[in-house]
Amino acid sequence: MSSELDLSPHTDRQRPEDGDVAYQNKKTDMKTLFLKERGVSVFSRLESLLIAFSPSERLLLYGLTVVLAVSALALLSGVSSYVSTTVPTAGGTLIEGEVGPARFINPIMTLSQPDQDLSMLIFSGLMRALPDLPAEASAQAGGTLVPDLASSYSVSDDGTTYTFTLKQNAMFQDGTPVTSTDVLFTVQAIQNPDIKSPHRADWEGVLVSTPDQRTVIFKLPKAYAPFIYDTTLGILPKHLWQNVTAEEFPFTSLNTHPVGSGPYRVASTDTDSTGSVTTYDLVPFKGFTLGAPHLKHIIFKFYSNEADMIKAFNAGKIGAMAGVTPTDLPAITRADDSTILSMPLPRTFGIFFNQNHATVLADASVRAALDTAIDKYALVEKVLAGNGVVLDGPIPPGVIEQNASVSPSTVVASSSSLVENAQNILKRGKWSFDEAGGVWTKGKGKSITTLKFTLVTADQPELVKAANLIAADWKAAGITVDVQVYPLSELNTNVIRPRAYDAILFGEVVGREGDFFAFWHSSQRNDPGLNLALYANSKADSLLANARATTNKKERDRLYAEFAALVKKDNAAIFLFSPNFIYIVPKSIQGISIGTLSTPAGRFLNTYQWYTDTEHVWNIFTNDVTATN
Questions:
Q1: How far apart are CA 415 and CA 373, in angstroms?
Q2: CA distances to 52, 313, 509, 582 from 385, in Å
Q3: Among the CATH numbers 3.10.105.10, 2.130.10.10, 1.20.1600.10, 3.30.530.20, which is that of 347-580?
Q4: 602 in Cβ contact with 143 (< 8 Å)
Q5: Where is the Solute-binding protein family domain (predicted)?
Q6: Distance spanning both ends of the chain, measured CA to CA
Q7: pTM (two decimals)
Q8: In whole angstroms, what is the distance from residue 310 CA to residue 388 CA?
């Protein structure tokens, strides 16, 4: 007998279901028939039940079914909302009007507001300022800064050496990497006196070295705390600019067709018959180091004057305007779908005395009386339509935390009492009023002095209106003043630079970093310094020098507060007001964050976060969405 198992197939042992195709098909048909009969049976029973219900019972059943469906949908919606987040998404267009052409879209040559606005969007620097108030920032700075093209930086213990490391993914809008040589080229171009950059003073004496392609070292001649703000300067691409001579710098087409590394790039332009650009269409630059912007288009249209721009706004051709003067606000008729933002600018408008040019202004009682006679609150209402702050010192609001220079009082003296107070100050200063001549005089015989002088200002509507209102206040107190108005260019060339004025009504752009050295240090009394009051006080000089050298914000604020009190005590100038900046934007634009501005272009600091469209994203994907934006 064989001991092996027979494993060969035998038809008499084969299971039918294993080999009979006909059987398999029959089995499938039976299963389908069973399911059909079962389904018909279920629906038949349901139909029988419905027939058995009374009309009112069927109505109740239908109602409960609807309630159940709605409740289920609401529950699903609630769960979805709980586990998801609304985030900005790409889309939307902002069309903004500008007064005047953009000629120098170049961070080292910017002059006009259109130049500065487009440069802010197209270029980026080693650091980028955030749109916050200085009071919200750290104790080491006048406002929050974040690395932009830089990945990190360090400052030496003595405050004179700044070392920056560039991000590996930093690139220009033509796809070329940003390197340390681009930074070196930009700074050297600013420092070149033949190029005549308006920002040259910020970089005077700064030495730049580049040990490698990603490292930049700045060496300052002495500690200067606000220098970190200078590193927000936009960087030029060396490979495009290196063959442009100093003489050609203002004329190259790169000024009107720029390439930078900022959040937006130029997609297209429109020109008029003369070849001047009338429209810029900017689109997101996806390589921007802080994330691709949301708005798909920012379009700038240029107008010759503010009246034409407002006309275009009222006609719906543009949706945003910046720098609208308060007196023109009533002319805006299409404001229902717009948001009007009024925010402080760190600017000080005042009357600065040249005591060397008009010796009558060297009398302390005269300067005090002139200050007392002015109704400053009326100026803010009549000149700025309330869009400003009354000042009582050289420091505008938002620059230092405890700003003693801004008068917090809400008690407003009447015009008659201001006049009386001013006259009493003059009388105590040995001045007497000559009723016949209608003037104040002091002294006797040949040494008699008459209180009269000239006030000059620029031909800007707000300044002219303010000058005339101030002259009226002084006239009410018996003080004789002659108001002279000059075109801005002529005022700068023929009056300010040679210091050929008795008193001048003008404004100082302080900036968020709060450096008052150029405006008040005695070394800045002559051109190109900006000490229009020709102020000279050794203690003030010491305070200013120490303040700009310290990196501790609280200590710097203390020094500046002491400086402001000293200037006020000396009546070196009459401080009038700090105007607000007015910006009109569509209500559809979200994500706008504007704190204290250094310049109007600062409104675009976080423009890469502006949006009109949103989408719901589950929380587990939120980090991914944030990372890509």
A1: 8
A2: 79, 21, 21, 11
A3: 3.10.105.10
A4: no
A5: 144-508
A6: 83
A7: 0.77
A8: 22
